[in-house]
């Protein structure tokens, strides 16, 4: 087992789970080594007590021989729910649409085991599912429908069963990528817009926001959407400028043991140079700003 700094860890789509009881941070992410090509290895986790030095990699998930997917294992997020740990992650196999499924384990280090096929619609190309718990304590999954299928990438929410084994009702469309002022299209006529990496967060002011990523004027970027009702259905509006504008994104917020809010993203966005990066996050009257952590 090695001790590493974040600059030594080749991960995309970083996610940090804070364990206040054990006083440990757990870092997950898409393994950069075969993110685009070849059979996927699985997911690793790194463990730290100070956000400076990380022990790992620890194999958190390795697919069983009968696992349904074999490549594009992306964006793992881990949550404690009902006394167990659940990993939301995206997977792909030839002949089946990409989807977000859920894995479970007794420990944040794993080993995580599949709970079955994806919970996203089987005929939709989807990715980047994230857990949201509403004001009534009900679990939801927010996920992206890919531009590859709809051109203008879409953001959806779907209610989950209490034990996270299935869904309740139909997906609810929250917004399309082109609705944000800061996003830019691509393709021959600029009709393609990306939705990536949603993460929902309630600010100390009580406002419900969503971090999500797309392409902006300076490359891959991270923006903020805001629910005008404070509930998952929205309606959602978008800040005019991205929170992080140049060549980095797929972010999430977490709290340190001392209560400091932190943002993590991967930057830059080009392989094989992606690394997890940490920023201090400050909320003031609904405005979120970030400061690079030393």
From TrEMBL:
Pathway: Glycan metabolism; L-arabinan degradation. It comes from the Bacteria. InterPro entries: GH43_arabinanases, Glyco_hydro_43, Glyco_hydro_beta-prop_sf. One of its GO terms (molecular function) is hydrolase activity, hydrolyzing O-glycosyl compounds. The keyword Isomerase does not apply. The record marks 128 as: Important for catalytic activity, responsible for pKa modulation of the active site Glu and correct orientation of both the proton donor and substrate. GO terms for biological process: carbohydrate metabolic process. Keywords: Glycosidase, Hydrolase. Belongs to the glycosyl hydrolase 43 family. PANTHER family: ARABINAN ENDO-1,5-ALPHA-L-ARABINOSIDASE, ARABINAN ENDO-1,5-ALPHA-L-ARABINOSIDASE A-RELATED. This is Glycosyl hydrolase family 43. It comes from Paenibacillus prosopidis.
